[in-house]
Amino acid sequence: MSEEVLYQQSGGLAVLTLNRPAVMNALTGTMRRQLVAAFARAEKEARAIVLTGAGRGFCAGQDLADLGGSLEGVDLGPLLREEYDPVLKAITESPLPVIAAVNGVAAGAGASLALACDVVIATESAVFLQAFSKIGLIPDAGGTYTLPRQVGLARAMGMALFAEPVKARDAEAMGLIWEAVADEDFAARWQARAQHLASGPGLAFSGIKQAMRASQGNDLEAQLALEAEIQARCGASADFAEGVAAFLEKRKAVFQGR
Ligand code: T3D
Description:
By secondary structure, the chain is of the alpha/beta class. It contains 10 helices and 10 strands. It folds into 2 domains: 5-198, Alpha-Beta Complex (2-enoyl-CoA Hydratase, Chain A, domain 1), CATH 3.90.226.10; 202-248, Orthogonal Bundle (Lyase 2-enoyl-coa Hydratase, Chain  A, domain 2). Helices cover 46% and strands 16% of the residues. The radius of gyration is 19 Å and the shape is globular. Ligand T3D is lined by residues 23-24, 26, 60-65, 76, 79-80, 105, 107-109, 129, 131-132, 135, 137, 140. Belongs to the enoyl-CoA hydratase/isomerase family.
């Protein structure tokens, strides 16, 4: 099987690279299946995950040449439910923090995948493109869930209806992503951020992800209950004891992720 998703691991960090650079890493069924498998593997072997792209693009969304013959009357529902939903859930339900290191254009479902990650770091020359309406579709792969929550309804509507590229700096300014980084500093920056997550208090990072994501659907009462439950776990961890001891001893904490 050709490797459409590369898996590299070192020091608690799993780097997953979308690997069809000739077509801007456009997504195939093989790629979606390999992505789901890679997330499952990383969950067992790593403490943080980076998703990035090979070549000059991050991901151009669905491979439009891989949809079969005549498209008129085609039912895209099963494709989304059976192949895209598992990828989105692999990202959002992973207990590990996931960074999207957006090395170039992220279009269509490629933008949806990037924006579903917990932290998005983009190189300054990257753009985010809600390409869907250009081909007569709506944002999918979680796009209509994520976009309005990240940038508000007005901007989400404009991005989806006009399908214009949003530059990384503008994406940062409107809260669509965490940070845009000068091209020459991009690799070093995402690697440093990823190492921070891979060597830090893993239970707390996992708890932060669980609580923040749950807050999108919870009322305050439910959220307070969830915070208490998660904080009880974190409070009992070796990392909490180490963090407090390191503070009192005026030294750098050495976390074990448990
Ligand atoms: O159907 C369903 O419900 C399933 C889910 C669908 C969700 C979606 O993702 S729908 C949206 C699909 N994506 C797009 O519509 C984006 C199409 N691509 C573009 O608009 C542009 O290629 C980019 C803005 C991404 C990049 O532009 P540029 O000028 O930097 O590069 P390029 O020259 O257009 O692309 C380079 C090559 O990649 C080119 O191939 P060639 O001419 O060198 O042989 C191009 O055809 C290929 N490519 C780019 N995107 C796709 C693609 N091939 C297949 N599928 C693509 N999505």
